[in-house]
C-alpha cells in the first residue's frame, strides 16, 4: 500500500483493487480509489473478483460461534455505548434523599417511633425533576394503598402521567396511570409493598395510554423518596 497518487503503471491498480477489497486503503487513498472506481466499470469488477477470491480462502475453515462478549465489543465499536435508561438520570438527584429515607425507615421499623405523633402513614413529596410538576403522595401500610395528588404545575396536553416505583438497584415498575387532573390511587400487593422502603417514586409523562415499552420513556416530571410520617 502506498500514499502516492494513483497511476496507470501495470499492476499497481490491480494491487490497489485487492487492497480495497481487504479494507486496507484508508483516507485520501481510499477516496481517490472509490472516485476512480465509480468511473471505471472494469475496476469495479476487479474489486468484486478479488472479494470473491478472498472469501474462498476461508472456505476450508470450520465455522465457530464467537463468545457473546466479542459481539458486544463489536457493537460497541460500531454503535458506541448505548444511552442509559432515562430513569437513571434520577440517581444523582436522589442519592441524598435515599440515604435519609433509609435511616428514617430503619428507625421506623425498629419501633423507636411507635410513640411519636403520627398515624403510621408514609409520605413522599415528589419534587420537579426534569419537568415542572410536583405531587404529594400518601401510603397507608396496613391497606397498602397509595394516593397521589398534583400540587404544582399542569398535566402536559396530549400526554398521560404514569407513576413508577423504582426499588433500590432494580428496574422501574409501573404502578399505573394518573387521571387527567393528576390524581392517582392504587393498592399495592404484599410483595410490592415490601419493596417500598428505600425505593423511589417517580412520575413521567408518556404517550396517551402509558409507556409503549413498559419502561419510562418520557420526561421525568417529578420524583421523591417515601419516608415514614
TrEMBL record:
It comes from the Bacteria. Keywords: Membrane, Transmembrane, Transmembrane helix. Pfam families: RskA_C. The chain crosses the membrane at residues 93-114. GO terms for biological process: regulation of translation. The keyword Cell cycle does not apply. One of its GO terms (molecular function) is sigma factor antagonist activity. GO terms for cellular component: plasma membrane. Residues 121-220 form the Anti-sigma K factor RskA C-terminal domain. This is Anti-sigma-K factor RskA. The lineage of its organism: Bacteria, Pseudomonadati, Pseudomonadota, Alphaproteobacteria, Rhodobacterales.
Amino acid at each position: 500500500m502506498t500514499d502516492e497518487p494513483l497511476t496507470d503503471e501495470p499492476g499497481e491498480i490491480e494491487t490497489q483493487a485487492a487492497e480495497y477489497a481487504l479494507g486496507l486503503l484508508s483516507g485520501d487513498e481510499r477516496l481517490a480509489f472509490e472516485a476512480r472506481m465509480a468511473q471505471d466499470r472494469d475496476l469495479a469488477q476487479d474489486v468484486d473478483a478479488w472479494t470473491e477470491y478472498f472469501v474462498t480462502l476461508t472456505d476450508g475453515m470450520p465455522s465457530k460461534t464467537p463468545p457473546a462478549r466479542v459481539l458486544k465489543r463489536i457493537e460497541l465499536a460500531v454503535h458506541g455505548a448505548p444511552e442509559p435508561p432515562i430513569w437513571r438520570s434520577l440517581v444523582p438527584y436522589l442519592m441524598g434523599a435515599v440515604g435519609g429515607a433509609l435511616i428514617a425507615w430503619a428507625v421506623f421499623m425498629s419501633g423507636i417511633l411507635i410513640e411519636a405523633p403520627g398515624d403510621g402513614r408514609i409520605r413522599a413529596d415528589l419534587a420537579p425533576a426534569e419537568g415542572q410538576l410536583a405531587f404529594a403522595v400518601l401510603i397507608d401500610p396496613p391497606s397498602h394503598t397509595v394516593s397521589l395528588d398534583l400540587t404544582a404545575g399542569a398535566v402536559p396536553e396530549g400526554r398521560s402521567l404514569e407513576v413508577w416505583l423504582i426499588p433500590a438497584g432494580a428496574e422501574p415498575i409501573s404502578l399505573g396511570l394518573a387521571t387527567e387532573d393528576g390524581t392517582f390511587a392504587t393498592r399495592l400487593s404484599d410483595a410490592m409493598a415490601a419493596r417500598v422502603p428505600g425505593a423511589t417514586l417517580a412520575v413521567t409523562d408518556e404517550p396517551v395510554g402509558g409507556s409503549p415499552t413498559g419502561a419510562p420513556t418520557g420526561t421525568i416530571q417529578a420524583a421523591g423518596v417515601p419516608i415514614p410520617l
